[in-house]
Amino acid sequence: MTETFDNLYIVLTEPKNPGNIGASVRAMKNMGIPHLRLVNPVPFRDEDEQKKMGYRSQDIVRNCREFPSLQEAVRDMSAVFITTSKQGKWRKDFLDVRDAAEQIAALMRNQKIAIVFGREDKGVSIDESQLANYLIYIPSAVHYPSLNLSQAVMVTVYEIYRAAAQNPVRKSLPVMATQHDFNRLEENIWDLMKTLEVREGDNGKFHRSLKRTLSRTHWTRADIAVMDRACKQIRWYLSHRVRPLTGSVE
Length: 250
Fold this sequence. Notes:
- The chain is α/β, with parallel strands linked by helices.
- It has 2 domains: 8-166, Alpha/beta knot (3-Layer(aba) Sandwich), CATH 3.40.1280.10; 179-240, no CATH class.
- Helices cover 44% and strands 12% of the residues.
- The protein has 10 helices and 7 strands.
- The protein has helices spanning 18-30, 48-53, 58-63, 70-74, 97-107, 126-129, 149-166, 179-195, 205-215, 221-240; strands at 8-13, 35-39, 65-67, 79-83, 94-96, 113-117, 134-137.
- Strands 3-2-1-6-4-7-5 form a 7-stranded parallel beta sheet.
- It is globular, with a radius of gyration of 21 Å.
- The model has no long low-confidence stretch (mean pLDDT 87).
């Protein structure tokens, strides 16, 4: 196995159990994945349970980074995969963990990829799910589909390791836009909508719908550049038109 995982980042969202952090870290160590990010974790670095479950994996703990929000934790990522067992509530692309692993193994060759795991008790919120390019589910018994956090990490990183080992020579895929790039594009388009006098609607409904629609597209950096240029051209046209805008679009 010659594939490296330098571009792969495991993100745990508000983990409450130091033992789960330790067990997750050990799973990462087993599969050669060095990068861990934590969103608002409980104290864990010096906890005995974490050290016991994360035996011989403390280098990952020492080097892990903590963030105040999931958005901050993934803002520099080109693609974000979020694990969840709640298939019925989402409108994103939903992938079996094995199919997701194939995509991750290809993408991570030339860009930073985040695999996000939700809270132990309630997973990720609907708003947080909007940060995902893809949602991942792990097949399990219908009557009890939720895995323990560290179990979900182990299954997922194993599948990624397996996919990378079976197909070591891959063509690099186009570089995806980072979450920061996407947020900037969304703000750019919304500013244009306001210039065109598009009304916000009830409780910001149109703005949220616009953001959801944009988030369904898997933007590459080249796509973002094209859209930036289009927005710039529209602004130029609006600033040079003789007849002012009248009325509004709803």
